[in-house]
Each structure stands twice: as structure tokens, then as C-alpha cells.
Design brief:
The chain has an 8-stranded mixed β-sheet, with helices on both faces. By secondary structure, the protein is α/β, with parallel strands linked by helices. Helix content is 58%, strand content 10%. The protein has 3 domains: 82 residues, Four Helix Bundle (Hemerythrin (Met), subunit A) (Up-down Bundle); 188 residues, Rossmann fold; 138 residues, 434 Repressor (Amino-terminal Domain) (Orthogonal Bundle), CATH 1.10.260.30. α4 packs across α11, α5 runs parallel beside α6 and α13 packs antiparallel against α16. α6 links the parallel β2 and β3. Bound molecules: guanosine-5'-triphosphate and magnesium ion. Magnesium ion binds next to α5.
Length: 449
Amino acid sequence: MPGLDDLRKAVGKLLKRSGPYEAIVKEYIRDIQRALISADVNVRLVFELTKRIRERALREQPPPGVSRREWLVKVTYEELVKLFGGDTEPEVKPPYTPYVIMMVGVQGSGKTTTVGKLAKFYRSMGYRIGVVAADTYRPGAYEQLQQLANRVGAMFYGEPGSKDAVAIARNGVEELKKRGADIIIVDTAGRHGYGEEEALLEEMRRIAEAISPDEVMLVIDAAMGQKSYDLAKRFHEATPIGSIVVTKMDGTAKGGGALSAVAATGARIKFIGTGEDVDELEVFRPRRFVARLLGMGDLESLLERIERLQSVEEFEKTVAEMVAGKITFRVLYKQLEQMRKLGPFRKVLQMIPGFSTMLDSFDEAAKISEEKMRKWISIMNSMTYEELDNPELLEQRSRIKRIAIGSGVEMSEVRELYNYYKTVKKMMRQLRKRKDILEKFAKMGRLPG
Ligand SMILES: Nc1nc2c(ncn2[C@@H]2O[C@H](COP(=O)(O)OP(=O)(O)OP(=O)(O)O)[C@@H](O)[C@H]2O)c(=O)[nH]1
Ligand SMILES: [Mg+2]
């Protein structure tokens, strides 16, 4: 899989490179274009993808503490994730029953194994499963599937001795529907579709015509790089591919062919196979997959660090808002929510350059426990908009009482939150007098004037 190995290399090279950023971007973009194209990823797709990456790389500013090169890696990662379906997980539940799935793919890609895995997966969801042995080419295909079906508790249909795959598929689907299967999975023969094998693509078309499957599932071996695009396209032209399974993700290969298959068919990857056993099937998760594709153990920690620094940046903005403006419960709410994500306040402030000087004045606030933060947030959820905007209204006992009842806490706890508000307000008044802090915010461009 030279092409996508190069993708990993391009990222590695990028992180080590120095020099003017624009030149780095240019060279990096050229590297990943070359890598993707040599892996047979559709050229138009490559250019669309790299155009987006380049635009974002030049336009976006990383959060403080993240280099622009690291940001470029994150942008690449995000754009690839989008390509693989983004944050929505594939829908694996059949929309109705009975539901017929037809497996297709080249020889040895893992079709039969995947039939067994799918049968087990769907059985554990409570479906009745039937499988059909419509591979009349591979010696022993009938017995292989029969054994698998027994193992996972699926109904089985086959016609040993028959060479008519189309008839077997048709009879099998009909029979298994009668026997009450909710999901019927049809195993077919492996084929490449080149030269003499054109006939096998024709057979595939005829099977599809005979059984009108609800979903044609293309099985792709993760190690198959270069040919994937072309092959997936041929299969897709014979019978429209509805979904993709990438097998052998447990091997050394990183699944580059999958990118091409997705590009060639427009179908989504639904599952990945991670071993020979019937249990070794996972629902496809774009993020995890792309991290594997980019092949960096470091990628995860890099992304985590960036995310954290982004949260710190958000938090900084809130603090700046607090210094500049009126303190309300709304602002405190935001601050507490962010603090909960970031961990102890003291640590957070240490992470913001130049803020360690504020630590003493924030010491009291730094001691709030996670539990208290959660409680305070729920108390604020019981306040009216008016109260959120005008904390001083809590001077009225009746309001404290109402809020305490509404959020199921003691009145003393509501008062404690109110006192926290007063402390923060006082702290901010002090901070406003400190020129160094104000200058810092002004420099960050976070404070008007
Ligand atoms: N490591 C690993 N091996 C797998 C995986 N899926 C399948 N295999 C192995 O790949 C080989 C081929 O699997 P089959 O399921 O027979 O492949 P097929 O596509 O049905 O092959 P044909 O019927 O000949 O076209 C077997 O040795 C399987 O055990 C996987 O996810 N990981
Ligand atoms: Mg097979």
C-alpha cells in the first residue's frame, strides 16, 4: 500500500519541517496529493480534499500553544474524517424485515468469514438470521458456511452439487423467508472481474436481479491498496454497492484501500473486521479509523492536547469577559461548566501564560470541588432569566427559598453560591485595577480598548 504509507510519511515529515509556513503548506499538500493519487483515490476527490485543507491551513489560526503545522495535521484529520462519514455512526439496524444482504468482493477478501460475523452480530441484537451458500466456485465453500452457521446459530440454505449460483440464491432467499428469517445474508463467490472473470461480474448482476437484495455489501481487504478503486468501481457498476466492510484491519495494513472504495462507490463503511474469529467485527467509527490511517500513535495525544488548549482558550475568553464586563450568574455558569471540563481551576490558570500571578487572588475559587460545581450548575438551572442576569435579586429570601426547592437543595447552599458570586465580583474588581492583566487581555485582542 505505498500510496497511503506516503500519507503517513507526509504527516511525519510535516511535523519535522521548518521554514516559512506557506512553503511548508505547499510542499505538504503536494505530498498528500501524490500519496492519495498513487493509492488510486479519485483525482477529483483528491483535489477537492486538498483544496479544503489548504484553505483552512492558510486561513485558520491555531489556539495558543499549538503550532500551525500541528494545526495542519488536525485539519487533515478532520477533513478525512468528514470524507469517511463524519461524526454520524453508520446505521447498522435494518430499516425493515425481512432484509436481504448480498455479499460481494474479490477472492479471499473475507466474505464468508464476514457472513458468520454479521450473523452473530445481528443475532445478538435479537434478529433471526438465515445464510445462503451461493458460492459455487470455491471448493468447500458450502461446508465452510454451514459450519459457521451452526456455530453462530443461523439458519442455513445451500445446494451441494449445484453449480447454479443464481438459482441457489433465489431458492435460498425464498426458503429462508418462509422459515421466518429477519435478515438473510447471501454469500457469493470471490471474483476480480478482469479478463475471463467478466463472466463472474455478469453472474453477480444476475444474482442481484434474481433476489433484489436490500443491500449489497462490498467486502474489501484492508491490505488491498492500489487496486481497490478500480475494483470497487467495477463491482459498483455491476450492482450498486450499498455499504462496505473493511476486513483484516488487525494486520499491518492500515486500510488505505477503503478510502478508494468509498470514493469509487459513494457508499459508507459499516463494519471493520479485526480478526479471524466470529466476534472480531466492529461497527465502523470514522475517527478511530482515520487515526489508524494516518498511522500515528502520537496523533491521538496531539489531538487531545489541541482540544484541551482550545478549551483553555474558551476559558480565557470567559475570564476576559468576567474582567471586562458585568458578573452575572450566566457568566458564572459558563465558567463553572468550562472548569468542570478542564479540571482544577488552579491548574487551568497555570496553563494560561502570564496568569499564574492571578493564582493568589483566585485561591478561594480554586478550591471548589467538582461536586459543588455540579450542584451550583443545577441551582442555576432553577433560576429565572431575571435572576441569572441580576444576581443581586438573591438578596430576597423568598427567591432563595424558591430556588432551593426547585433544585432540591438547602437554602444555605443557594446562599453559598450567592457568596461565591460576591467573591468573584470582588476579585474581578481587583483584577481590573491591575494594569499587567489588562494589558495582557488587550494584547490578546480579547478586551475592547
Ligand atoms: N486476520 C484476519 N483474517 C481474516 C479477517 N476476515 C477474514 N480473514 C481470513 O481471510 C481468509 C479468507 O477469508 P474468507 O472469508 O474465506 O474469504 P472469502 O472472501 O469468502 O474468500 P472466497 O470465498 O475464496 O472468495 C481466511 O483465512 C479468514 O480467516 C479479518 O478480519 N482478520
Ligand atoms: Mg468465501
